[in-house]
Amino acid sequence: MKLTTISENVDRLVLAIAEAYQNSVGSGKPEAILRQQVQPVLGEALLKLGVRSIARNEATLAVPPTSEASMLDAPLTAIGRADAIYNRFVVEFEPPNSLRPSVAHSATRHAVEQVQQYLQGVAQESHMKLERLAGCAFDGQ
């Protein structure tokens, strides 16, 4: 029996998501359509990997203010809404092709700040250490 590595599982997951993304591009489809195309594929791929795959969509969380999103001990004094939470993994969907490799890009910086906020909210809500959580901003690329 061949053991698969985490890297191999992630590669399979990324390929499945990329295929779903390709089905949503081309007609200027907004973020919501990207979500509709990707989430079922993501859920199915996670299920195949043995990961709980039911998403909490539009989850309302107590979060730090945007200006303090990168501070690990910032007080949670604002309310945010995470696009999807899969167990301990936060996904923030962004409009297709809107993110860039650098956080100097304003849309990318905003998306990273949102993910940081939501991770802190999930940590507080679930009583888990922040290090036990993960998240990403996703624009299909």
Molecular structure report:
The protein contains three helices and four strands. α1 packs antiparallel against α2. The model has no long low-confidence stretch (mean pLDDT 81). The protein has one domain. Strands 1-2-3-4 form a four-stranded mixed β-sheet. By secondary structure, the chain is of the alpha+beta class. α3 links the parallel β3 and β4. Helix content is 40%, strand content 19%.
Distance between the termini: 33 Å
DSSP summary: helix tally = 3
- How many individual β-strands? 4
Mean of residue pLDDT values: 81
Q: How many distinct domains? A: 1
Q: Rg, please?
A: 15 Å
**Uncertain ranges:** none
Strands of the widest sheet, in order across it, are: 1-2-3-4
Question: How can the largest sheet be summarized?
Answer: 4 strands, mixed
Q: In which range does the helix fraction lie?
A: 25-40%
Strand fraction equals 15-25%
| SSE run | HHEEEHE
Q: How is the quaternary structure best described?
A: single chain
Shape: globular
Structural class: alpha+beta
